[in-house]
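Technical note accompanying the year-one report. For the benefit of new consortium partners, we illustrate the data format agreed upon in the data management plan: each record pairs a sequence with a structure-token string. No post-processing was applied to the example shown here.
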Amino acid sequence: MTSTRTIPFRCPHPECGNLQETADRTGLACDKGHVYPYAPGTQIPVFADAPAGSSEYSIVDAAEIHDNALRWLFATFCTDEDTLRENLISRLGLVPGQSLLVTGAGAGNDLPYIAEKMEGRGTIHAQDIASQMLLAGASRHGDALSAIGIDIRFSVCDATQLPYADRVFDAAYHYGGINLFSSVGQGIAEMNRVVKPGGKIVISDEGLAPWLLNSEIGKQLVANNHLYACQAPIALLPETARDVKLSFELHNCFYVIEFSVGDGPLPINIDVPHVGRRGGSIRKRYAGRLEGIDPALKEAVYAEAERVGESRVDFLEKALRAALRT
């Protein structure tokens, strides 16, 4: 599954049209008049930007501060950046020519590793809601990735309201930060929305494995950084998710969720009849329940059904149909 065509930005407002560059070339505008400026000195559209100073990611020198935090992380967990990032990105199963969305891209540390998996051929859209981080990532990696043949696009936007049409990417990736989303469930739903059926989504962030939460090392980690108390948001996956895997990295202190995007309802036949005394099917047992009756009458009905050799559901349906004809 590959895609080499350009993926356009769409207005994140519901029911809006395609975005076009403004007449003065200072941003993008939709058919209904919503305008999104480019970040100064760039052609990176700003759809939504975290207020300056609202977090450690939206302050001056945020990227450099984050670099220091990463050095601490790899030293603390006795690993290195290459090992961890290559491990996580390999789970996407990328091939040359594919299109990938990176949410919460930050300063773009994952982008060179992704480009390597794509062998320099493909499309990457990297977004973050903190312009300070995103613009640093664009400055660090944009020209280098373009030079090797990657179609790289950056945007400052809210990952819970992505500026893309449905089913346009081959895969989506998120490393660190989803714990801080305004709505983790909506962030996952948006990634699921913009990825094609069959496409892979990989999400990872701080979060202790459950068996470590009450351990001494677990308590120390949470005291150092409360995000380690976050649990993997496995319950927030869409019901159509396929091939779901939950694992842990960094000595069981960093959760990783992988799943493939499903297309339509789960292929479960809820009309297969049960064989036995009760009878019926999943659909009948769930949706066909009637009002309560006298317990003694219920037992008498069950006994009569067994006497005549019918399942309870078949016996009741026959009796009810007969009553409706009278």
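Partners are asked to follow this layout when depositing records. The chain has nine helices and ten strands.
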